[in-house]
Amino acid sequence: MTDSAAPAWNAGKARAELAPGALFIGGQWTPAASGRERAIVDPATGEQVTQVPDSAAVDVERATATARRAFDEGPWATMHPRDRGRVLLRAADLLRQKAAAIAAVESLDVGKPITFTTYVDIPTAIDLFEYYGTLATSIEGAARSTRIPALAYTRREPIGVVGAITPFNFPLILSSSKIAPALAAGNTLVHKPAEETPLSALLLAQVLQEAGLPDGVYNVVTGAAPAGEALLRDPRVDKIAFTGSTQVARIVARTAAESLKKLTLEAGGKAANIIFADANIPAAIETAIKAFVFNTGQFCMAGTRLLVERPVYEDVLAALAGACPHIPVGDPFAPSTVIGPMAGQRHRDKVQGYLEAARKEGVRVLGGNGTLPAGGGCFLSPSILADVSQDSRYVQEEIFGPVLTVQTFSTEDEAVALANGTSFGLAAGLQTGSVARAHRVAARLRAGIVWVNGWAMLDSAMPFGGCKQSGYGRETGPEGLDEYLQTKSVIVSLG
Ligand code: NAD
Fold it and tell me: What pLDDT score was predicted for residue 79?
């Protein structure tokens, strides 16, 4: 991509594109009952962008009552799936028309480079609406052959009211990966986006309304943990679709158990990226860098644990350390920027805390020495922690920033053991020139998704999700639609 291909946006121009800073309930923009608001801050400058309501339980209850009514009484759940699909396809068209503005707002809100929001986040969201708008036509039951004298068939029905809770790092994509299949299946939603980055959810509400979604089917409540907890407790909510940290996923599972809600939990990760000595080493190094710096390392599937086969270890390490200071860190609206700011002060402080502790403990820290923009932004230069042991917390804990641990191994068995040796199981990858090894190792890695000779290759048709402490359930693909459907058996006596 050339610089001239990127649109000429800046923070000021993006601000003009914001949706109302309000809750979206029953098709209306409305303040929180308490009138309390939260500031939304541009992480590149530290300046306030806007304010949105800080919802309390009473606001969430208003939204869930509305979504319940829309499900029980409205046309959406009983509409033919093809008609629902048409609304999703119209939403995809509108997203395409508004792509530049939505990309700019997402960059302003999260600090993502405009090139990434333009060429990754927005096209992915459009594709999700198109994919599920089309897949809606496949929702159908089946006639079954039974031993009893009956006409027996299954119906695939929506679950009811879905509470969607999303994290700060990929707001638009992770909202779309829930909203699109949930709507295709005929559910209604109350969505609580992350407290720091709610702006694209509010734009999505506008888009869906314009696409013809009936009022009350998609509702947005902005706010923090108390708003999320109110959703978890509300008996009118039938299912929770959560993406966020493993720590909060445990709270979600515990609280939602009270009313036996269905759950999908997309939680944290600490993905291992294995470089075998038989790989195309320059390509593997390039992949390793992208894998840990993409989205400033705020990526659940980031390749933040690099395992390098002993004969090429020192060369790979030297190349990585040499590359770090040259990766452009800066203004998200500059087309050349590869690493934007972290999404907020608390995220940068957490990562810096890990780096300071590592230095104090005598860990070999490389990189971290790139030029950073002056001013109040949450910028960090990518860093490498070399020769760390498998049981160190830098290997075991999700740091969630541009920090890579590097370890070495001598055998394939050792590589697999190291890769599988954390409590997480979201993503993993290997770089190798051997086709046999690629399939052999992919089968042995305990992760929901495995990449061979590349990283972060994702597609709406392919499911993703975790095992172990990375959660359960799948998003995207047909599996992602199944998570929003339940099966009813109808048995008609022929006696
Ligand atoms: P987080 O767990 O702090 O918050 C996620 C969401 O949960 C936010 O909307 C937050 O307000 C809400 N929340 C927080 N406490 C809550 C509570 N007690 N009850 C109900 N809701 C509550 O996560 P984050 O910091 O926003 O995001 C980063 C984390 O998300 C990382 O761990 C990352 O790995 C994970 N993540 C996972 C995936 C995946 O697909 N598995 C994708 C992206 C991010």
Answer: 96
The reply to whether domains 6-267+470-490 and 272-460 share a CATH topology is no
Tell me if 300 CB under 6 Å of ligand 1: yes
Q: Is 168 in the pocket of ligand 1 (CB under 6 A)?
A: yes
pLDDT for 128 equals 98
Segment 315-343 shows an average pLDDT of 95
Q: What is the 3-state secondary structure (H, E, C) of the chain?
A: CCHHHCCCCCHHHHHCCCCCCCEEECCEEECCCCCCEEEEECCCCCCEEEEEECCCHHHHHHHHHHHHHHHHHCCCCCCCHHHHHHHHHHHHHHHHHCHHHHHHHHHHHHCCCHHHHHHHHHHHHHHHHHHHHHHHHHCCCCEECCCCCEEEEEEEEECCEEEEECCCCCHHHHHHHHHHHHHHHCCEEEEECCCCCCHHHHHHHHHHHHCCCCCCCEEECCCCHHHHHHHHHCCCCCEEEEECCHHHHHHHHHHHHCCCCEEEEECCCCEEEEECCCCCHHHHHHHHHHHHHHHHHCCCCCEEEEEEEHHHHHHHHHHHHHHHHHCCECCCCCCCCCECCCCCHHHHHHHHHHHHHHHHCCCEEEECCCCCCCCCCCCCCCEEEECCCCCCHHHHCCCCCCEEEEEEECCHHHHHHHHHCCCCCCEEEEECCCHHHHHHHHHHCCCCEEEECCCCCCCCCCCECCCHHHEECCECHHHHHHCCEEEEEEEEECC
> What is the overall mean pLDDT for the chain?
96
7 C-beta neighbours (distance < 10 Å), count: 15
CA-nearest residue for atom 17, ligand 1, is: 225
Q: Is 266 a catalytic residue?
A: yes
Q: Of 112, 121, 165, which is best to mutate to test ligand 1, by the most ligand atoms within 8 angstroms of its C-beta? A: 165
> Does residue 21 register a pLDDT over 90?
yes
CATH number of 272-460: 3.40.309.10
CATH code for 6-267+470-490? 3.40.605.10
Listed by start position, the domains of the chain span: 6-267+470-490, 272-460
The CA distance from 200 to 352, in Å, is 28
What per-residue confidence (pLDDT) applies to 1?
41
Confidence (pLDDT) at 7? 52
Are 370 and 329 in contact by the 8 Å Cβ rule? The answer is yes
How far does residue 165's CA lie from ligand 1's centre (Å)? Answer: 8
Taking only the tens place, the pLDDT of each residue in 249-288 is: 999 999 999 999 999 999 999 999 999 999 999 999 999 9
Backbone angles phi, psi at 369, to 5 degrees: -120, 25
